[in-house]
Amino acid sequence: MDDGPQSSTTRLAHYRYSAKSNTTHLAPPSDIELQHIIANQNHEPNFTDDGPAGARQFSLPPVDTGRDAWLLLMGAFVLEMVVWGSAFSVGVLQDYYTSTEPFAHDKSSVSLVGSCCMGVLYLASPITLFFLQRWPHIFRINSLLGLGIAVIGTLASSFATKVWHLILTQGIIYPIGASMLYYPVLIFIDEWFVRRKGLAYGVAWAGSGVAGTVFPLLLRWALSRFSFKVTMWAWSVGMIILVCPFLPFVKPRTPIGVDVAPRPQNLSFKFLRSPAFIVFQLGSVLQSIGYFAPSLYLPTYSRTVVGASDVGITAPLTSLNAGTVIGFVLVGYWTDHWHAANVIFVTTICTVVGVFVIWGLSTSLPPLCVFAVLYGIVAGSASATWPGIIKVVRNADETAPGGLLLGILTASRGVGSIVCGPISAALIDTKWPWAGSPAGMGYGTNFGGLIVFTGVTASFGALGFAGRKFGLFN
Predict the structure, then answer these.
(1) Do 298 and 372 touch, CB atoms closer than 8 A?
(2) Cα dihedral angle (432, 437, 438, 444), rounded to 10 degrees?
(3) Residue 368 pLDDT more than 80?
(4) Do 259 and 271 belong to one domain?
(5) CATH number for the domain harbouring residue 287
(6) 243 with 323, same domain?
(7) Burial profile 38-63: b = 16 or more Cβ within 10 angstroms, e = fewer
(8) What is the mean pLDDT of residues 182-187?
(9) Does 415 lie in the same domain as 383?
């Protein structure tokens, strides 16, 4: 039974005492652990009776190192790869649907499958993470239920005979389940890693780069060898085989008691008025509006402008996804050592230069692939700066819930995933004054407006740097 706030304070005191007495198996608690202790008086962590005067003390695994921490990170990498692997394979599926009956007759609606899938995955993040931070004891059943829903959505899509069936199964049911399965691990990384938090998130998110590089190739091969139904059934089984062995390792560092009915945590929303949050979030939203344009249109650019072969058409997109693997780890490491605003400023400058100089002047495959790799490293890894942004916001408001903050930042990327497609299509269809000029190189093609749009929106990522320079936050 819980002894109230005084008991928790005593436990914390005993914890700090034992931590100073060369008890090497103990590690300082993270912010989330302190929230668990203070806000959830009825969530009993593990204690031992070996403290001074018979007092109980914490016995927690170490942060930033140890078997449990690395197993959690491995599980996070696999979940990232599986969940986002399907989403990043939407280009292959879209090409299959538009060229195969019974879906080919409704080409105008096929694009909604991918848009809905990406949009739901991104926009579900604040909702899912809110419930997980409000009721943390539901994480295990939430993940298992999410895996079941994702598998059901994929299996059900194999029986689709109309495009709206695909929108419902792959565009709505699958991402709802996938978000429930995936997002708990983002909260747990925050608990298990303190000094290496940015690097840990970067390594986990690199799984999406691996998925974006490998899964489209596997999916294209499977669809060419087998039927759509067999491919979807195989992918459903593959999800279960890949995910289930790692789910036991995806757990919080602070044990959550189940012996009493847990009370929901009270979450603070004061951070929504924080200048740091407002500036960083605004920059993230504006930057994301053009962020997806290269991944959507580099294959088409390769075919129509460069005149690449079938292999060459996919080379820039593969290069971009491979670049994100490097970028997530590299930018995550920088975030641990530099202020988030400085990291974002450096990556923004590199992105803008890459778009305007390399992509804008590319009319052959090698420089286009160079641009794709650079874009993947510095722009594709933008989410690796989010742990640093959360740290800045928490410096001003210690009550800011990290999981919910991460969810809102993720949702800002979802806004871009929804609006980028229609805006990009309209820009390509627009006749620009400089179009048709051979000297204009990439700018002289139908993609000139899209290139300018991508570079301009990317520059808004530097709003965080400007906000810090003007003294809006430290």
Answers:
(1) yes
(2) -10
(3) yes
(4) no
(5) 1.20.1250.20
(6) no
(7) ebbbebbbeeeeebeeebbbbbbbbb
(8) 90
(9) yes
Tokens in use for 231? 């491919």
For residue 136, say if its preceding peptide bond is cis, omega within 30 degrees of 0. Answer: no
Element (H, E) at 402: helix 402-429
Burial classification of residue 238, based on how many CB atoms lie within 10 Å of its CB (0-12 exposed, 13-18 middle, 19 or more buried): middle
- Residues in Cβ contact with 72 at an 8 Å cutoff, skipping those fewer than 6 apart: 185, 188, 189, 192, 249, 250, 251
Instruction: Give residue-wise pLDDT tens across range 409-431.
Output: 988 888 887 888 788 888 887 87
| Claim to verify: residue 464 and residue 349 sit in the same structural domain | yes
* Same domain as 429, residue 293: yes
Helix segments in 40-171, DSSP class H? 67-87, 90-99, 107-134, 139-157, 163-168
Examine the fold and report which residue of 266, 288, 309 is the final residue of a domain before the chain moves on: 266
Q: pLDDT tens, 427-452?
A: 887 877 766 666 567 787 888 889 99
Number of domains in the chain: 3
Q: How many CB atoms lie within 10 A of CB 167?
A: 21
Query: Do you know the residue count of the chain?
Result: 474
The CB density around residue 158, as the number of other CB atoms within 10 Å, is 17
Which of 22, 41, 58 represents a domain boundary (last residue)? 58
CA angle 290, 294, 298 (to 5 degrees): 155
Enumerate residues 6+ apart whose C-beta is below 8 A from 223.
92, 96, 231
Taking alpha carbons only, the member of 457, 123, 449 closest to residue 289 is: 457
**Amino acid in the structure at residue 255:** P
Residues 116, 222, single domain; the answer is yes
Parent domain of 53: 5-58
